[in-house]
């Protein structure tokens, strides 16, 4: 039976050959836990030079991954975002969530039918704040609301809407997108690791449990969940956070790790600052959110046992595409109802769904080959 199969996954840390010499191969059964491999603190060093073991990683550049072992039977790993990829919550729950918000705020006169919602969506180009403004400009704002508090009122509506949508995502009423299960099965049958990134999703732990419940026990063994806890326990997460990564590291290696982590933080800060100069409208939380996505992508590759250039991110958002570009990971956007009209110029490809003429394992494998750097 499929659910009783125990397959051994050889996990190698993906950054450089230097790391693979320093850290031994880990064997961890898919069926024991889909969430994370053994803690990194259990790893031990060999007798090779600390500087030679670590030198390749200090630049934190994906170009060093070109020396990945060509004899590996697994040359591809797939990383999946949650919002817009596993679920299309906006298609099924966004309108209802607005009505829940109106109800919670005591706005009995406000109710968005499907035609009203579609009209607002079209006229606002998907800008939800503008949707609220358009609607109340049409039917009239609450009589007790001062004119100078319209902005705060709109924010309150959107906040309640997000709460209602989150509850909907956690409920049994929201199905996985069509074709997700078959896509995961196909990847598993071809020995391709599938990593689900919950770390930068809303309610990381809750959404992870919801995903596992919807996938079912037989399919849980076919995926690896990477949330905030897994990022913290990953080698990359420990390096960038500046934590001591192993009691077995000698003083020279520990200092070099800290210098590398510091250089990475400085590089990220400079790149974000450069972007901010181009557009003052970018949210001040961009740096933090992009850093979180980058950490999730690197940790995802690490848990899959492959370098980032051998992984493909299936994203549902512009921020995911930006993170993939930052680390040098090929990226495919899966359109949802929220992004059906959006353009993704930085993505390697765009698809409308799973399977058939859209996103398949064979297409991702071809994409990975085309984007793999030459030795």
Automatic annotation (TrEMBL):
Gene3D superfamilies: HAD superfamily/HAD-like (3.40.50.1000), Putative phosphatase, domain 2 (1.10.150.240)
InterPro entries (UniProt xref): CbbY-like, HAD-like_sf, HAD_sf, PGP-like_dom2
Any one GO molecular function term: hydrolase activity
Listed name of the protein: Haloacid dehalogenase-like hydrolase domain-containing protein
The organism of origin for this protein: Lupinus angustifolius
